[in-house]
Protein: Class II aldolase and Adducin N-terminal domain-containing protein
Organism: Aspergillus pseudoustus
Amino acid sequence: MSTDSEKPSVYQNFITGCHILHHHGVLDAYGHLSVRHPEKKDIFLMPRNIAPALLSSKADIVEYRVEDASPVDLDSPPGYVERFIHSEIYKKYPAVQSVIHSHAPSILPFTITGVDLRPCVHMSGFLGKHVPKFNIAEYYSEEDVRDLLIRNQRLGNHLSACFSKETNTSHHPVVLMRGHGFTVVGGGIEESVFRAIYTAENARIQTASLTLQLTATTSTTATGAHPVQSLYYLDDSEIRATTQMTQWSVMRPWNLWVHEAEANPLYTNNV
Ligand SMILES: [Zn+2]
């Protein structure tokens, strides 16, 4: 544990980030956080093949090449099969410093229905006006295992392309993956963790609101009462302003979440 006067190392933040994501139900035994190496931009860090909550030391962290997701050290412990999600995003978007892939249950209904995930609360404006959806079935080749996992560079490249915006060089922060989950990117571990947590939270709120609205609409239709107002989503100006607000305030929740993780005896951080 570091004192307030010490800046935590990327390794320490990385392990804590994994614990926070587990604590908030964004990761369970599956899903993963990665971070670009702070000095070597063509390298990224990921856990070895264990549940993220159990990460506890530098020995649990493996360095991979952005180029092809191969381990820098051939004697590294086994890693996750889906690390191509991360390598292809780092390759395509140099500004991205951290990636999270999650199977959070609250997101899944939005990946298998025609309902779009849209920002409906002020902490989720970063989602933007449109959250792209990736359907892996459009990209399978003959030799691919059809288990919905991103098992190679080709599938990772198709997924990473979904983050691109047509109108400029910026990128979407979140992409939904059919029947599987979502992937989120950030300018650092703190930002990607923030975005992952509030993406899942927005999905819970939106689903509850749609359910309420459907109930209200059904009852007013039955009684002939005045139709119910449609859901309020953030408009364009609110999306811009709330995105800025959460960018400058990201350390407030992060510092709380660090303390929550440190206070939970399930998690160990020996860095
Ligand atoms: Zn996955």
Summary: The radius of gyration is 19 Å. Residues 10-220+227-263 form a domain with the L-fuculose-1-phosphate Aldolase fold (CATH 3.40.225.10).
